[in-house]
Amino acid sequence: MNNDDLKKKIEQIVDDYICFSEEERVEKSIRRYTLCNLQVFIGYDFNKELYAIYCTIPECSKGKAFDVFKKEIEKICCSEKDIVSGIMDYIKELKEASLKDFAVLSSIKGLKMNCIKKSFGEFQIIKTPEGKDIITSMGHMPTKFFDEWFEAQSQEKMFLCIKISAQDYNSAIAMAKPKFEEFNAIMKFLLAGSKYRDVYTLQPDPYGIDYIVLEPSSSYKKDTVDRSIHLINAESTSLNNNLSRKVWELQKKKRNQKEERIFNAIIWCGKAMRDQDQKRSFVQLCFALETLLQVEQSGRGSVVTPSVMNTLSENAAFICGNDYEERMKISKQVKNLYSKRSAIAHGREQDISEFDVDEMRLLIVQIITELLWGTEFENLERIEQLIDKINKKKFS
After folding, report:
1. In the listed set 208, 235, 262, which residue is the last one of a domain according to the structure?
2. How far is Cα 395 from Cα 110, in angstroms, rounded to an integer?
3. Same structural domain, 282 and 317
4. What are phi and psi of 82, to 5 degrees?
5. What pLDDT is attached to residue 284?
6. CA–CA separation, 128 and 106 (whole Å)
7. Inside any domain, residue 112
8. pLDDT class of 13 with cuts at 50, 70, 90
9. How many domains does the chain contain in total?
10. Closest by alpha carbon to 285, among 205, 204, 188?
11. What stretches of the chain adopt beta strand conformation (E)?
12. What is the DSSP string of 296-350?
């Protein structure tokens, strides 16, 4: 989208969705009221159109979080400037702005480790006070701040750290939040089969808290959350086996389509293990199964049909089973489990036990393991290749 097309698009949005008269444009209070009630007047379209513009600007979508972009556009709409020219000037500034490397740290609890620093995919966990120099080397951090910080701590503290390239520290925080959620979900997936299943591995939850943000110059924010939690050893087998290493490798790399499906299924499993409600947990595990085995995924709110159940059960059977007996057993297992998802989708009462959740989780882990290391499947890159391979096994 060139500059003229972009301007026309913005003019269209302003005309269609921010319908001020010339007299109203000088009234900030009216603008603010109108803007705050856009959802009432126009539903979701304003956000959708704004997001479409955001995605057409590479410099913006790479270094400016959408939530930050939206807030800054809203400020322009509430100012006394001409909205179109104000937005165009803002976008010009975005295109000319350079990216900076930020280190975003969140205070975490729930882990213990003997080493000072440990890497998990894109993340590092750093133990203080021993790792103080590692943290300070990442960016500007006033000595006075750290002195005050450590004086207030009665025990060692750990930080989860990720490097983010962004235009500003608010965007760095916004871009780090889903990454921290991703970390939480992966940890829950890896620890789900251990005695730590019911322990929240990381505290606090990223949403709604402050972060320490380090940049080459001077900006930083302070996290003051402090909670007690059971400790998990970062050197435990669950976090250092072949599956763990492969999962963190997937998290860090540019993934092909099959790997993206596997990774998304892992995230769904992790979310399921964090949910204390058995029924919600089970449904999220079903989402993971669908993500792995469906060519065309149905939406979350879709009705589950017999054909979907048959597809999933057959695909799982031919991925995990080595002979007729094994495949029939797996197919029946999937149909039995997935019929419960079908009952929930159709609004019927369905009790879900902890055994159901564990059985579905173990099935998904088995499928993921076969897709990652099974000699027939490990070199495939697309889900269509996987389905083709399964069909050849069915009909040959």
Report:
1. 235
2. 50
3. yes
4. -65, 125
5. 94
6. 13
7. yes
8. low
9. 3
10. 188
11. 100-108, 111-112, 117-120, 123-128, 157-166, 212-214, 232-233
12. SPPPTTPPP-HHHHHHHHHHHHHHH-SSHHHHHHHHHHHHHHHHHHHHHHTT---
Tell me the mean pLDDT in the region 233-247: 85
Mean residue pLDDT of the chain comes to 76
Instruction: Pick the closest to residue 269 from 253, 288, 296, 255 (CA basis).
Output: 288
In this structure, are 319 and 377 located in the same domain?
Answer: yes
284 and 377 housed in the same domain: yes
- Shared domain for 312 and 343, answered yes or no, is yes
**Residue type at 278?**
Q
Residue 351 domain-assigned?
A: yes
Say whether both 188 and 316 belong to one domain. no
Is 269 within the bounds of a domain?
A: yes
The residues with which 120 forms a beta bridge, in sequence order, are 123
Greater model confidence, 58 or 21: 58
Six-digit token pair at 22? Answer: 């010339």
CB 311 within 8 A of CB 289: no
Instruction: Say if strands 157-166 and 123-128 run parallel, antiparallel, or are unpaired.
Output: antiparallel
